[in-house]
Amino acid sequence: MKYYAGIDIGGTRIKMGIINELGEVIVNENEETKKEKLELFTQIDHFIKRHPYQIEGVGLSTPGVIRSDGYAQTSGAIHCFLNCYVQQELEAFLHLPVIVENDAKSAAMAEKWIGAAKDEDSFACLTLGTAVGGAIYMNGQLVRGLGGLAGEFGVALSSLQPGDYNEHSFSYHAATVAGLCREYSYSVKERVLDARVIIERSQQGDEVAKLCLSHFYHAVAVLFVNIAVMIAPEVIIVGGGISENQEVMEAIEEEYQNICKDYHVLSLVEMPHILTCQLKNDAGMIGAVYSFLRRYKKINDGNSI
């Protein structure tokens, strides 16, 4: 059995795993993300060296628009990676082969490998977190697009008004932190950055929380509709922490179905089903390793390794 390091970098926490060639997570650790590049590289190096496994390579999942050569055109909350050849620099530091992959694309590849999408040829994966991330599979293959931009659903605009484009993006309305938490915090003049707090307050009768959640459900459902009519996937798979809340997912799907019913054109056509990611918080690590295997082992999606 061969082993690989799967690293999933988030703005607050970094998830690091030892993963075998079947996608099984053997070691799983979670630490605070270091902010400087050298510290971050050292953090990864120390993780690999303190475990008794011969590591064949490293799959790194990170926010941002990542080119196929591992260059980060954008880097989200990982500011030290901006305009950086992350793959080349990390390979030189670790003395191991490395693949760098966008976090949402990593999640999609994990679900395609051993998760909810393993039997799907065409699907979109949507991650609802600090911002909205996404990935597209068509005809069994991941779609990267120009410079890795394909699937960046959160950057899409939800308004026709000129100017203030960040405020018109779907991340500004349909992400749990940039959207839901921002609107609620502004409304109650209190900084709330955890969607679970808003959900709990809604259940306790907080009318502002209920209203903000209804706006959030509608924004996500509209994004589903736009994805459906633009790329027509068989299913849309939803990940991110909030996807683990069954009540929230049912509310989003109900709003999606209402739009499909009320919008006459959509009521006449087959629309994608909504599924929830199966691999939860491990998806980024597993998918980054799968990306490594696809590149270096020349495997095809849907085939066993």
TrEMBL record:
Q: Which UniProt key words apply to this protein?
A: Kinase, Transferase
- Example of a GO MF term: kinase activity
Instruction: Give the matching CDD domains.
Output: ASKHA_NBD_ROK-like
Xref: Pfam families: ROK
Q: Which family does it belong to?
A: Belongs to the ROK (NagC/XylR) family.
According to UniProt, the name of this protein is Putative NBD/HSP70 family sugar kinase
